[in-house]
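Much of our argument rests on the idea that a fold can be written as discrete symbols. Part of our work consisted of pairing the sequence of a single chain with a tokenised description of its backbone. We regard such an encoding as a compact summary of how the chain folds. The amino acid sequence and the backbone structure tokens for this protein are reproduced below.
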Amino acid sequence: MPVIAVVNRKGGSGKSTLATHIAVWLSRRGEKVMLGDIDRQRSTVPWMQRRAGQPVQGEPVQGWVSDPRNVLRPPPGVRHVVLDTPGGLQGFDLGRVVMYADILLLPMSDSLFDRESAAACLDELRAHPRVASGRVQVGVVGMRLEWTRYAEGQLRAWAAALAVPMVAAVRDSRAFVSAAERGLTVLDLPPEQAPSENADLGPLFEWIDGAIAAIPVPVVARPVQGRMPQGTSADRAGRAATSDDPPHKPAAALPAEEAPPDTERDGPAGAGQKAPSAAVPGAEVPISLIQLRSRPAGALSQLRRWFGRILPGAGEG
């Protein structure tokens, strides 16, 4: 499930405008989208309320309001998540967003304040392992640029100097403001009413398509089959008769409800799964051994039980 986060420390950079347009673009393609607002100003809330009364095309955009410290748990069926983040995001809160995201977009205008703020944000992002390893793709989007294209040239030169792709240049237009007043985007308007605006957004959507296609396919870890002790059959029988260790139960023989839950790459997991009610002795695995990102309590309990089966006494001490 791709997660696209719109990030910039500087307020008023166009984060909400960019996030709503990406969400609508996905919804018009038939995707089930959740627009997550983790900005304290709740900028997308009034926009969502106005949109609810509009006859728009595509799947409904589902809203979600929280803060950067909360765990993402999208509604069932959601295929894409777009996050509108607050200004001033840094440190732990920024790192937590990066842990969820597959794509990070930095909207910015061509001004000294925007460039300095974005450069500091990029430095912090690049220090994060998921960005440094290329698992999260980062792009810059020019917002509210002058129509002379001088500002676009300035911004592209700045991006090239910092080795970050500038994926689109969006000109300043009243169409964005008037559409937002009705809970719409320029994508919802008749094409003849916003041809230039739609043309500016085209390269952005093409880049996002490529970035989504480059997301690694989820790899689900499977239990490793246990090996029989080395030696003759008599030796093996003797060791089995004298060993104080509990007999090893091959992972393949585990009941279906005790198998490790299938999880999507870096996404919420365990939805709809029910943990077994029977207690398993010695199944309490230290919680630090389990990746905590977006796992409901049932999935964690189920994973502990599974570890307890293949690693007896893993949680003791």
Summary: The mean pLDDT is 75. Strands lie at 3-6, 33-37, 61-65, 80-84, 103-108, 137-145, 166-171.
